[in-house]
Amino acid sequence: MLSLDVKQVSKKYDTFELKEVSFQLEKGYIMGFIGANGAGKTTTIKLILNMIRIDSGEVQILGKNIAEHELELKQIIGCAFGDVEFYSRSKIKTLTDVIKRFYKNWNDDTYYSYLRRFKLDENKKISQLSTGMKVKYNLALALSHGAKLLILDEPTSGLDPVARDNLLEIFQELVSEGEISILFSTHITTDLEKCADFITFIENGRIVKSAEKEEFVASYRLLNGKENQLNEVKDKLISYKKNSFGFTGLIHAEDFDPGLEINAVIPSLEEIMIYFAKKEAMYV
Amino acid sequence: MNVAISNSSDKPIYQQIFEQISAQILKGELESGYVLPPIRQAAQELRVSIITVKKAWEELEHSGLIHTVTGKGCFVADFTPDQILQLRNDMVQGQMATDASYYKSFGLTIDEVIELLKKVY
């Protein structure tokens, strides 16, 4: 069953356009949503949550259209946008008391067990929380109303390595029952190398590729060759860098002829992102 | 069952898991009938993605080392000693093929390789 189905979603602004964005997330899995700053990650997330009106296309969550069933679906979506920027001078307790009224399936026991687990003191003011604590508070809120789909925008940026690892462990625990799905955007790709099942890569408002993580990286090759070999593959490279030792470049695996004596390895997510960004720069 | 994953290795993680478990099966450390942990639980404990474990388990099944009983789990398969020997030889030969191409790249003959191998073995 699909937890999230984004179909051909487009949105046009004066200076930026999201064009026919499509991807699917199966129930019970983690999807990493990657892309450079300004590639359209947050816009896509806002469109999914019906916070911005879609020009064309459709978003379905657990089989229902978000625009038509917004109130019903928001009961089972948990979302976090990194920061809690509202009522920052109130205590956690006060804010939770307001928020929980919106949710039919709010469970106080679950909420307090997460507060304990995350070591959150409900008498602290929002403004006194560290970035990591705010993310955890957001998660505690999302998880206490029985969310089936978590949509998190950059939950790990701004966290130290220990807190990030901690959070990723929680993500894996959440999906382990097979009921909850997580979509999270990030530009820290190492977070995804281990825990994400699927990767969706957005570049300049378009989805470059959305696939299983291993299939995703295996569809590219990072070439490392001598300068005189560059001409043999130049036309097919997505982008390349030249230096006095030769060149390195990214290529689609199907475009690469293994008969050529060029060293080819499977790139990391980060390398894929970098070479795609370089391609943009080359043609501008 | 022991699995140690290296993030700095060039090998995909599912391949690492597959190789380590299959070695343990072939060495007899995991006996036939041994129940592998459920995929989602294994993923959580190994701190890898669910699909990675799924792939490793699929490879194991594909090689005939485990079999899946729907609703019950994955079990280490039954083997005759001949089968074990066959599977072990296949695996060792696979590794040898990789190593051989490395030796060939230095222009070594098989006799030279055997001489060198004798020194380190």
Automatic annotation (TrEMBL), chain A:
GO molecular function terms attached to this record: ATP binding
A Pfam cross-reference name: ABC_tran
Keywords annotated in UniProt: ATP-binding, Nucleotide-binding, Transport
Family matches, as InterPro entries: AAA+_ATPase, ABC_transporter-like_ATP-bd, ABC_Transporter_VariousFunc, P-loop_NTPase
Gene3D superfamilies, A to Z: P-loop containing nucleotide triphosphate hydrolases
SUPFAM superfamilies found in the cross-reference section: P-loop containing nucleoside triphosphate hydrolases
CDD domains membership: ABC_DR_subfamily_A (cd03230)
Domain ABC transporter, first and last residues per copy: 1-229
PANTHER family reported in the protein's UniProt record: ABC TRANSPORTER ATP-BINDING COMPONENT, ABC TRANSPORTER ATP-BINDING PROTEIN ALBC-RELATED
Protein name: ABC transporter ATP-binding protein
From TrEMBL, chain B:
Signal peptide: none
Keywords: DNA-binding, Transcription, Transcription regulation
Full protein name: GntR family transcriptional regulator
Start and end residues of each HTH gntR-type domain: 11-79
Record has DNA-binding as a keyword: yes
Claim: Transcription regulation is one of the keywords in the record: yes
Database matches in SMART domains: HTH_GNTR
Entry superkingdom: Bacteria
InterPro entries from the UniProt entry: Tscrpt_reg_HTH_GntR, WH-like_DNA-bd_sf, WH_DNA-bd_sf
